[in-house]
Amino acid sequence: SQTIHQWPATLVQPVGSPLSLECTVEGTSNPNLYWYRQAAGRGLQLLFYSVGIGQISSEVPQNLSASRPQDRQFILSSKKLLLSDSGFYLCAWSFNYEQYFGPGTRLTVT
Amino acid sequence: GENVEQHPSTLSVQEGDSAVIKCTYSDSASNYFPWYKQELGKRPQLIIDIRSNVGEKKDQRIAVTLNKTAKHFSLHITETQPEDSAVYFCAASPSRDSSYKLIFGSGTRLLVRP
After folding, report:
1. Quick one: average pLDDT of A77-86?
2. Residues of chain B whose pLDDT is less than 50?
3. Which in A71, A82, B51, B94 has the greatest CB count within 10 A?
């Protein structure tokens, strides 16, 4: 069966520091991968998605970037964090329509 | 692009009553409509979905209906239980390609009173 991992689970970073969040999927090949952000008490905002290695589509222009160096690895990065980057970051995978979420990373920018 | 609106934002029902959450979408090309349940501090979990060639789907106490003409779909929970308390999100997939990306509604906080 498929499993999706995210790390770290929680992160506290100062404003202006870099960011790297990692997501990996097991048990499937060539999945579609997605990054979402959820602000406290809010909905799910699609940030990036990828249909294959090296293929990244951005949904919202912002302070973040994404990369997919391997088939089952998806990375979310920032060079300099802003206070507004705080939130719950969720990675998801799909093979066809159904999307399944990872456990998330709770990021607090101080 | 696709826009999904969800109502109500909060819903409080007595245990055993039914709950209905409604969503509308804007892109007539959207063809897949999932519903997710998110408990506090947890990841969203897929609970039911429907494709555009189906009008209704049921799974035990939950059901989803789709009206393509009116571009709206609804989640129905019958015989609600306290463990149904959570935030529910609807979504629509406007993909005309292989991305299968989802656009989510703003969520409904459901409280089931014992």
Report:
1. 95
2. none
3. B94
